[in-house]
Amino acid sequence: MKEVEIHIDFSCPFSNMGGERFIQYLESKDLPLSTVRFRSVQLNPDKDNENINFILNMSNKFNKSVEETIKIYENITQRASELGLKFDAEKIVDVNSKNAHIGLQYVTMFGKQAEYFRRMMSARFERGEDYSKISFIENVIKDLGLDSKDFSSKLEELTEKVSEDIKLAQERNIRGVPTFVQDGKILPLESSSTFEEFDNIIK
């Protein structure tokens, strides 16, 4: 199978579900996880990390009560559980995702993007870790058997790669995540697409 790119943001629960579903699809076909190439997108690039209460922020953003917002995320949590994912909206720390993307750019050079994706998404949505901290990302990189000091020495270069991905998403006119792309062509797939749909659409 040719490489499939998925434009994602680590702050997005649907990116989590879409990326996980595709990883599980690759595993079901005994295909290498390096077949997927995650591309960086930031839905809220100006997030200042001042107000980090996720439920309250989402409530304000969508002009809904806290109770209504919790119910919305209960529905998302149920959908995620079908993939074996655990969401705990009340634990989520609402912080800027840029540094998580910087880490993604580094691990991609070593074919570890799927493993990193899973660890970072679990850190955010299940355990409520502050994944914006470089020290946290260094530990994830170390756990993947990579050189965290080498990562830290390349932050400027990796930040530029994040910007290049974001520019690519703009050029492709990508308006939401996850967005699946193959051979530069946007595929009619989404976070809830089935394995059968992957089979029918992906080359």
TrEMBL record:
InterPro entries to which the protein is assigned, alphabetical = DSBA-like_thioredoxin_dom (IPR001853), Thioredoxin-like_sf (IPR036249)
What domain of life is recorded for the organism?
Answer: Bacteria
Q: From the UniProt record, list the coiled-coil ranges.
A: none
Does the keyword Isomerase belong to this entry? yes
Q: Where is the DSBA-like thioredoxin domain?
A: 4-188
The entry's keywords: Isomerase
Q: Does the keyword Isomerase apply?
A: yes
UniProt cross-references to Pfam families, sorted A to Z: DSBA
Q: Which GO terms describe its molecular function?
A: isomerase activity; oxidoreductase activity
The positions making up the signal sequence are: none
Task: Report the protein name in the record.
Answer: Predicted dithiol-disulfide isomerase, DsbA family
Gene source species: Anaerosphaera aminiphila DSM 21120
